[in-house]
Amino acid sequence: KLKLLNIESRNFKWEMQANRYLGESFFKLKLLDDCRIVWEKIKDKIPGDLVANDRLSTVYQRLADIEMDKNNNPVSAEELLAKSDNAIDIILRNYADLDIGKRAETFALKARNAKTRWINEWKNIAEDKKEEAALKSVNLEIAYENYERGYYENLNHYYSGINAMGLLTIIITLAKRYTTLWAVLHDDDDNKWEITKLEDKLKKLVISMQFSLEAEKRRLKQTQISDRWFEITDADFAFLTASDPTRVGIKYSRALTGAENFYIEAAEKQLLLCQKLNILSENVIAALGALPPKFDPWSKVHYLLFTGHMLDKPGRQTARFPESKLAAVKQKIIEKIAEVSQVLDEGTVILGIAGGACGGDILFHETCRELKIKTQLFLAMPREDFLKASVSFAGPDWITRFDKIYTNADIPHFELSSKTELPKWLQKKGNYSIWERNNLWELNSALVNGGMNMTLIALWDGKGGDGPGGTEDMVKQANDRGAKVIKIEMDKV
What is Dmax (Cα atoms) for the chain? Predict the structure, then answer.
């Protein structure tokens, strides 16, 4: 529905305000591509907008992580990091006007970019060369200094503090392991990188972080608020300071019990970093062993959107979908689903989306159920109104079939509107009806994982529909968004 609003708000006077709401909503939902597009629109109009640059600095960094970790595309990742750095620089031009929390957060973002570059420099190097390569990188020191700067801007910003502690621990450990290399790297410096000085810094950081975490713990207890990120940071602190691996394991177990994958992966990523560099090995083993298993049955979902003709209404002059074709259409639906399934990666789950009109929609839901494929029912309006518009003319048997889908606990149903007409603010929009709106809603719901993870099966005669928002419109909308479209040609059924 947010994506639908994104489309519908275009060219209204309040489009900019809508984009701000949408950009923030997409950010909270971690819909990075949608978030990027919306905030870039705002930045194009107001290049110095602080909120737009703040959000884009984070979004670009997260997209860079994906390019590096999942797509193995360092060139694209570096382009995104450069954009993130640019957005950060725009924010820091207004340093004097930023509160201490925003200053800390911005320096932490700058540090995170450097950390991402640092990891990318050595992660694919041979195991026996990783540690030296990691120590040589100037980005390690840049990341540490910016995290430290962020923390000292605001001593309550424990995210900066714990990351500064973690990187300083890595620097000291590797510097002691490769003393000659470290001395060569800093032979022209003013001794600020001497190991003894770094160890003194670490001691001060540890003491300061103890106070920071204790203060936050008391505040959370007083307000009776739970904070998953704080619990993870508390576990990270134990990981970096505790001499008892068992205690470290217990901390992570408590912090991540019942957590979503996002939190588990964030904690795991930091632990794996230390594992690859042989830092605090016993604590790493205990912490990794305490992480709960990740569980997400929909982690690999391919959305199968269906659109198709209703049964012919009584008195239709040219037959298009008479009941005599039901069996043949069902067989074609089975064949097209099999065609999609054959090219999907192992472990990918198919989720079907369709309306509830008599004919193609209901047949699709029924066929998917026989094939043990879960579906979702999308209705443009409440049940009673929808039946009048799209089902009841075909007779009581089709109402019964609709209700079996509607009342099935395994088939969630969603309603776009509580009325049969467009909301007032959309009623003057030309060539637009609730049916076209419904098509866009269904399509954007199916595109939630991107166009590569969605296929539209269209039962279509290749002609215009009997009214607005029909199959032709859905096919056009899908093609415009780069989705794969598979057609069942009615005249060949």
Answer: 92
CA dihedral 87, 88, 89, 95 (to 10 degrees): 130
Q: What is the DSSP string of 165-229?
A: HHHHHHHHHHHHHTHHHHHHHTTTS-STT-HHHHHHHHHHHHHHHHHHHHHHHHHHHHHT---HH
CB-based burial label for 37 (10 Å; 0-12, 13-18, 19+): middle
What pLDDT is attached to residue 492? 86
Tell me the C-alpha distance between 263 and 134, whole Å. Answer: 26
Closest residue by Cα to residue 257 from 239, 231, 275, 237: 231
Question: Distance between CA 445 and CA 319 in Å, rounded?
Answer: 32
225's tokens: 């608020």
CA 303 from chain centre, in angstroms, equals: 16
User: How many CB atoms sit inside 10 A of residue 1's CB?
Assistant: 11
Long-range pairs for 386-389: beta carbons < 8 A, 24 or more residues apart = 386/356, 389/420
For residue 133, the one-letter residue type is A
**352 residue type, one letter:** G
Banded model confidence at residue 465, pLDDT cuts 50, 70, 90? low
Query: How many Cβ atoms are within 10 Å of 180's Cβ, its own excluded?
Result: 7
187's CB contacts (< 8 A; 6+ apart) are: none
DSSP assignment string, 40-86: HHHHHH-TT-HHHHHHHHHHHHHHHHHHHHTS--HHHHHHHHHHHHH
What gap in Å lies between CA 491 and CA 488, rounded to an integer?
A: 9
CA dist 116 and 147 (Å) reads 13
Per-residue pLDDT tens digits for 298-343: 558 999 999 999 999 998 888 899 999 999 999 999 999 999 999 9
E runs forming strands in 309-388: 349-354, 374-379
How far is residue 177's CA from residue 280's CA, in Å, rounded to a whole number? Answer: 13
Contacts of 168 (CB under 8 A, 6+ apart): 144, 148, 198, 201, 202, 205
